[in-house]
Fold these 2 entries.
Entry 1:
Amino acid sequence: MTTQTHQSTPVILTGLRANNDLHIGNYLGALMPLVEMATVKSSEYQINIFVPDLHSFTTPIDHSKLQAQVTNNLRLYVAAGLPLNNSNLHIYRQSYIPAHSELTWILDCFTGFGEMNRMTQFKDKSSKLGDDRISVGLFNYPVLMAADILLYGATYVPVGDDQTQHLEFARDIAARMNNQFGELFIVPKPVKEQHAFFGKEQGLRIRDLVEPAKKMSKSDETGKGVIFMNDSPEAARKKIMSATTDSLGVVAFDLQNQPGVSNLLSLLALFANRPLDEVIAEYQGQTQYGPLKTAVADAVVAFLTTFQEALANVDNAQILAKLADSEAAMRDQADVTLLRVQRAVGLRG
Ligand code: ADP
Ligand code: TRP
């Protein structure tokens, strides 16, 4: 077995949190960009997209639903266009590659308690749980995340803002261990370079339809301002037709003063696949909001109808075959890194 640090093809890696209440904000802001990135970059990069199933119960869950959630989640990505037949794209479940757990333990022993204690996501999440429900797993899950990244020598790791502190930690521990033991790990690029690489400055934010000052989010209590990917097209149409606008009475793209109307213009551009400027030019100055709402509703209905059909036709057997293939290949790659670390820390001769 080789112990070289540098794989020939650079790696882009990300974990897909199981999330079954996806809405069109998630689709436009996360799913689509990921599918596009995987498709475009796979000619030059190895793309690892994995399901962090070991992360799923850092907070309490219904364990009997986990298997179905993992499958459903992958079905959504495949329906959104993730190409299963692309050999540079690897899709796998974390728990099927034991090196993730093994490297985590080793990294744990090189991680400071204070370092983990500073993680803002831990503070946020643990403050919502009772003391006896805060698990050690929730506390040290950034270490597992570092193992996820470092095992494959990933240079680029697309994540949301809530994960950048964890990514910084992965960089820190990689550099620290390289310092102590020699070149064990490829250190992922700094967050700023990652943003430049993925074009993060475009930072799309779809607004809630009822309260357009807020972003559309699954944690909205009523769900009236949120269009879920499994809403019936007719329910989606109703939500759009009753979207909050304003009393100015003239269509303009002005996020500050007309966030509701601006959001509708953005949605139309995105779902009708037209440049925003062109959509603005068409509706700007109109004194009724009805025609804009109807156009948005038509575009969203067409999109949801097509997406839901594609989702119904996704073949689970094809997904399982891809997982088995990728898991075999990735097990080999991960084991190379793990052995290098085991040797460095004295576990292997
Ligand atoms: P939610 O707010 O619904 O809980 P998450 O925080 O789970 O969404 O976000 C999952 C992904 O979806 C993130 O990458 C995030 O940037 C993206 N996302 C969430 N809401 C929106 C939105 N309203 N507009 C664009 N992207 C969004
Ligand atoms: N923690 C990430 C999230 O909650 C998911 C994740 C786990 C991940 N391991 C990762 C993302 C490694 C990128 C790289 O969204």
Entry 2:
Amino acid sequence: MAIISDDDGLENVSRVKKNPVVKPETIEYDTTFENTIRPKDFDSYIGQSALKETLKITLEAAKKRGKSLDHMLFYGPPGLGKTTIAGVVAAQMGVDIRITSAPALERPRDIIGILMSLKGGEILFIDEIHRLNKVAEEILYPAMEDFTLDMTTGKVQTAKTLRIPLPKFTLIGATTKAGELSSPLRDRFGIINRLEFYTTEELAQVVKRTAKILEIDITEEGAKAIAKRSRGTPRIANRLVKRVSDFAIVKFDGQINEEVANYSLNLLKIDEFGLDNTDRALLNMIIEKYDGGPVGIETIAAALSEDVRTIEDVCEPYLLQAGLLQRTPRGRKVSPEGYRHLGIKMPSEQTSLF
Ligand code: ADE
């Protein structure tokens, strides 16, 4: 991967050449590992088949028209491949992608600097775009709509508006919270797509692909066992492949089969639903302290000494999708399925007074 050096002095942005993808520095995970295994084309990108089909058509149409791509918004829980698909889009269009995230665009000059350094056709990827501040958003509106940068100079009475033309670029925004995007910003995206959780079969394919790249010996059943406990999320599946492989090498003969996978995942305290200690603690706490709920998210976060955002973005989406937790107007509630999963008897819905 050729990362072009930032000789324009831009901070907080990863400039990447044709398809390699770099994660924003604000998010902590193993970018080297993720980048090594990231698919670079639609064929090696597993899952999200409806999204892939529509994107292929959009890309082909843009190529035939000789125009830049419409701005795109990808939303969905973390780890489902929003950055990855943006990288695939860039690679398929044969253009460079510049990757940053909203929290890194704090000052107006951050976003202005990036916009002014873009080249025609380039893709600007902004992760966590729902966290963009008002000023940055307002700079983005004319940039997205007319490819201009509207700047005001001078004092109030003598202020002049300067319109600086920008090259035609494509903005790809990614968010875990589409609902938190302001409507003017959301309306400026021509293409809005939701990424879905992966099926066990799809995740097993992701696991096998990653194992092959990392030269890890794995059986079909071993891949499936890891897939089942990966919470529908390729990022988790990939992380588990690596961890289980460590066990396979140290405790077994190096191969990941069903027994090795289950043994390792049990030791890692990842249960057959893919829940870890934090998820189980969350459900247990709501049951023990709040009779199963409903209870507000702030209370849950405080009781677990966790950040509200971590609960909302990382734990909750899968617990809701798996039907273990329910969202009600009065807060979160553990579902009957959630009680069953923890092996706790559910109090009857109504207590008789007699
Ligand atoms: N790694 C992360 N997401 C992936 C996907 N959708 N397909 C293949 N490998 C992946």
